[in-house]
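Action item from last meeting closed. Structure (537 res):
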């Protein structure tokens, strides 16, 4: 059951939901699973502080191996103590008797509710030619826990004086009430006439409301006579902000190649490499939209777009993920049986400042199972990196009408550096793998089954960059005749998975009326595919 200890910090009059997850064991029915308030350790009576309001959630029933959630809701009004502790127990009826499943301690801290206005982007930075005009769009959101009432907007300079007429807001300056979570899409116009002095101007967009609440968004404008601007890049990787060999912080990735191309004038290209600080400055670029590509040895490449504006320097932070895992294919021919097995081997770096979570083994070849056969095994999930893996979650193969999967252990929400989790499993054949062996089967041909188990996670680098990753194991039957078992990468970084079978699985007949034979991985095991790996020769 999780969690057993909770620390919450919320504004007053805000309902904080704490999900309590309970899972029944094997062969255990849990009836009337519920939350109850209990006395603090050493006390005899339950004491709920004045002003604290509780909703203990619904009562649930759980069958064996079934997971359920009870939502505990905690809130404190203006009379509640600023901080304190609350104690609960999870109770259930097991075989007709009441049992305590777990104790939960909740520490709370209350703060005053207030509106908080944030802008996206957080500041406005633009450039415009004398006699020309530009429009900048932005979004204001109330991310606080109270309504900003009678919100109004005003553009002022650094001294608090009204902005000049060539800078103005489009539309009304009165927003009315801005509720919790509400947003407004707005824009401002910049149109300096020829009589405006060339230079850099600084303003503020002030947002005011009842109760003395006031927020501001910086506005920077470059008024120029030339249509040229600059682009600044900072390149980082997983080692950025960690200590190097000289015991000094690594400021960025050196030697990354940056290629820039104007999207309208394709001949306008620039190339530069990042310096020892991971920085690169491209000067005197014609204003316009550009696409860029950043590459570095032993790193994944990144592409993007930016907008160069007259008279200003646009800044771009680019994170390149290190290539720390390689997966190699091995195709083994089994003599006298006219079938092939595909094995995956992973080579990866350890002791790196990012989570490196791997399942082992990466691939499992199932035997030719008959109805009722049971195949058992165990997976290991290991974090080989130096950073904790967070938000660990798994996607289980659901099976189909051929097999049923059972997993006998849970994957934790976090995996500390060096942690290993073992996951036993059981696969039961619901019918024969080979349809031709069943009494009512007709015809010949061949086929295979495949199933995939995936674990995804995130880790945070020293420079604050959050890196998603994942690993997977695949079960497949050995392929017979001209069939081959497909597959794909058993890891990923940056939020994507390589090619490979989907979750669940299915029988895929090959031969007969099938016109295209997909052979994976290249080269084809039986030589029946062309060099494009798409159709038989």
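Sequence:
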């Amino acid at each position: 059951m999780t969690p057993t200890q909770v620390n919450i910090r919320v504004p007053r009059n805000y309902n904080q939901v704490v999900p309590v997850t309970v899972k029944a064991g094997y062969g255990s029915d849990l009836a009337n699973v519920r939350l109850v308030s209990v006395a603090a350790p050493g006390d005899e009576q339950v004491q709920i502080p004045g002003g604290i309001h509780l909703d203990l959630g619904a009562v649930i029933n759980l069958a064996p191996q079934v997971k359920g959630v009870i939502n505990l809701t905690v809130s404190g009004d203006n009379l509640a103590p600023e901080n304190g502790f609350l104690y609960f127990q999870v109770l259930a009826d097991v075989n007709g008797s009441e049992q305590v499943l777990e104790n939960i301690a909740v520490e709370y801290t209350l703060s005053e509710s207030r509106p908080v206005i944030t802008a996206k982007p957080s500041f406005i930075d633009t450039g415009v030619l004398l006699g020309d005009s530009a429009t900048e769009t932005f979004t204001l959101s109330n991310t606080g826990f109270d309504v900003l009432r009678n919100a109004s907007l005003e553009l002022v300079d650094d001294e608090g004086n009204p902005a000049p007429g060539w800078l103005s807001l489009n539309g009304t300056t009165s927003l009315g009430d801005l509720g919790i979570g509400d947003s407004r899409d707005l824009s401002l116009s910049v149109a300096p006439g020829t009589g405006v002095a060339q230079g850099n101007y600084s303003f503020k967009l002030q947002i005011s409301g009842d109760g003395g609440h006031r927020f501001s968004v910086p506005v920077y404008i470059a008024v120029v006579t030339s249509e040229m601007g600059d682009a600044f890049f900072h390149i980082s990787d997983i080692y950025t902000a960690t200590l190097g060999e000289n015991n000094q912080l690594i400021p960025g990735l050196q030697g990354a190649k940056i290629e820039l191309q104007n999207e309208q004038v394709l001949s306008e290209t620039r190339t530069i490499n990042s310096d020892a600080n991971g920085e690169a400055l491209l000067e005197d670029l014609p204003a316009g939209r550009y696409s860029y590509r950043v590459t570095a040895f032993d790193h994944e490449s990144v592409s993007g777009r930016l907008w160069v504006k007259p008279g200003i320097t646009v800044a771009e932070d680019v994170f390149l993920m290190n290539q720390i895992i390689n997966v190699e294919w091995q195709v083994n021919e089994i003599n006298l049986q006219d079938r092939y097995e595909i094995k995956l081997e992973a080579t990866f770096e350890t002791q790196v400042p990012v989570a490196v979570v791997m399942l082992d083994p990466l691939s499992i070849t199932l035997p030719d199972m008959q109805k009722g056969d049971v195949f058992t095994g165990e997976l290991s999930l290991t974090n080989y990196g130096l950073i904790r893996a967070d938000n660990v979650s798994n996607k289980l193969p659901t099976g189909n009408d051929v097999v049923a999967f059972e997993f006998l252990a849970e994957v934790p929400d976090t995996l500390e550096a060096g942690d290993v989790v073992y996951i036993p499993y059981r696969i039961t054949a619901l019918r024969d793998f080979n349809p031709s062996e069943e009494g009512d089967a007709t015809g010949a041909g061949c086929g295979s089954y495949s199933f995939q188990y995936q674990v995804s996670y995130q880790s945070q680098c020293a420079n604050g960059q959050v890196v998603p990753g994942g690993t997977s194991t695949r079960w497949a039957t050995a392929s017979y005749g001209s069939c081959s078992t497909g597959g794909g990468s058993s890891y990923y970084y940056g939020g994507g998975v390589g090619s490979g079978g989907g979750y669940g699985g299915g029988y895929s007949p090959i031969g007969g009326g099938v016109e295209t034979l997909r052979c994976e991985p290249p080269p084809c095991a039986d030589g029946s595919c062309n060099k494009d790996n798409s159709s038989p020769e």
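Note appended to the action item: The chain is about 0% helix and 50% strand.
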